[in-house]
Amino acid sequence: MVMLSVPVPDLEDRALDAELYAFVTSLDPDRVANRDVPAVLAAVSRLHARLGAFKLGWINEVTRRAPNGPPDGVDRLREPHRFGPDEVRVTLAWSRQRAERDSSVAHEVITLLPDVYAAWSEGRMDEAKARICHTYLANLTAPERAAVWAAVAPRVAGWNSGQLAARLRKLTLGGCPERVEERYARAVEARRAVWFLSPDGTACLALDGVAPGDAAAAKKRITALARRLRRAGAPGTLDQLRADITLALLDGTLDGLTSEQILTHFRPATNGGRLDLSPTVRSDITPSGPAPRDPITPAVTQPSAAEPHAPEPDAPEPDAAGSDAAGSDAAGSDAAGSEATGPGGAGSRLGTDVVLELGTLIGTNQRPGELPDLHGAIPGHVARAEALNQQRGRWVVAVCDHEGYLLCCATLRARPDGALDRYRGGTVELRLTVTQLEYWLHDPPRGFEKLIAEIAARYRAWPQQVAGLNEQPDRRFPGSALRRWVEVRDQTCLGPGGCGRPARQSDKDHTQDVQHGGKTTDINLSPQCDHDHLLKTEGGWTLEQPEPGVLIWRSPLGQTYRTRGDPLIDPPPELDPDPPF
């Protein structure tokens, strides 16, 4: 039975006051129309955020009251009292640890981050976002906090917490190079392995403070092994197999085995919830492993004596078969199975996929790079070291317009002087604007002459090559060049709400399905994770792509969302030194 709905006025700009509270609490959900339900939820969320901010304010008030002040007086301290959190914990029946943590957050948000507190109090962000801002901003200098907040404030209401954290991480890592490198070195120095029991009776183990490139390489190898095991018929999900392999590598079960021997000796029989990993023959295996390395940044001390070797720029790449999810999760596919000897062979670390600006590689700036496998930004000096140790990896360039959006994407043969053949495989993606290219072409930095000259040549030839991206519109799956273009252009899944899954790990979805006449072209393809892909095919959402890389989603309740990948090159915060162009 469909009941008549009550009218719901525009709530978006209503003041967060008692009148709004009384209105939303008086609504009968049975009488609210489908189209109005999201608006009511948004209003309730804004009210909840305001009350959460007020609660934090009162926590700070309790901790600042003088313990020996008159009961009927108002006697505040400049700073929270040492035992002020104990008043909070007995009042709210909290643990001491929670009371101390939230009391500290309350004081620092209110005193150090007043703009964040104001946005929270006004309902423009919720508690989760406010705490993320505290995590990234509280330890910065006052000018740094102001510059970073100014960069995120206009969009904070529309970002989810993951998007906000990613942007804050990138901006804070792009701050003062000396402080960034100092914090990084301290964290690596404090690296540790931790183990603890989970509430369900299982256990968790983790590594903290390790170099991000090493972590990404470990993920890449373990994922490649797990994928090969699945293809060989091993039971379990990819996550389950990765967990089993990781534990077996650590607990000694697989000591001394090469990747191929690990695959051979895996037996797909379950044993208490874990695969039986015990090998059948081990006596002829001699343990070996990589020589110890500097855990902070690999040294890059000398130029390469030989001309770098790289794949032909226009050589075809293997296309995916049977799925739109081309190139998912383990770039380099079965890199774990390679046991070559010599530089970049056995005993050397796997290469990673690393993204950085050409200016960071050259050293004219210290802007953060990215490790797509780990879904986030890394310090610029770490990204530079990762790139320069992957001479034989695949190098590509993304030339962008003045707003940071993609104009040209091409594979490179040239390498800078000083690149070393230290890691196996991997992909280095360099980014720069046309303005930067023109500047460096006129005055190339020493050691980068060949690289910059080739980038310029690729950019000049791009108008002829770009036409070939859409030359096979009737094929079911995109070719390697089109797939790479979409992945670099969009960077992540373009589903509503800011999914964040890397584009290369997502389906290359046809906006208009092939069975309905959709073509395999750049204006009809976009990255979609499995879930967001299903929104369109099974969830009742509709999707349009009015221009390449710009999506318009419409929900079953009539909400409209516009998504587009972020610029490949962000404008730097105001505190960044002016670039030389």
Overview of this structure, please?
- With 581 residues, the protein is an alpha+beta fold.
- Helix content is 38%, strand content 13%.
- A 4-stranded mixed beta sheet has the order 5-10-8-9, sandwiched between helices. Strands 13-14-15 form a 3-stranded antiparallel beta sheet, with no helix packed on it.
- Mean pLDDT is 83; it is low at 269-342 and 574-581.
- InterPro entries: HNH_nuc.
- Residues 504-513 have a biased composition (Basic and acidic residues).
- Residues 318-340 have a biased composition (Low complexity).
Question: What is the radius of gyration?
Answer: 27 Å
Report the total helices: 18
Helical residues, percent: 25-40%
CA-based shape = globular
Strands in their spatial order, largest beta sheet = 5-10-8-9
Structural class: alpha+beta
Q: What is the β-strand count?
A: 15
- The amount of beta strand, in percent, is 5-15%
Give the end-to-end Cα distance, rounded to a whole number of Å. Answer: 67 Å
The main sheet comes to: 4 strands, mixed
Mean pLDDT: 83
Low-confidence stretches: 269-342, 574-581
Biased composition (Low complexity): 318-340
Region (Disordered): 269-350, 496-527, 562-581
Biased composition (Basic and acidic residues): 504-513
Protein name: DUF222 domain-containing protein
Features:
4-stranded mixed β-sheet
Describe the structure in brief.
With 581 residues, this protein is of the alpha+beta class. The chain has helices at 18-26, 37-64, 84-92, 96-112, 114-121, 127-137, 142-152, 161-173, 177-189, 212-231, 238-250, 259-265, 358-362, 380-388, 434-442, 449-466, 480-490, 530-537; strands at 192-197, 203-208, 267-271, 274-276, 353-357, 369-371, 376-378, 394-400, 406-412, 427-433, 507-510, 525-528, 542-547, 550-554, 560-564. The protein is globular, with a radius of gyration of 27 Å.
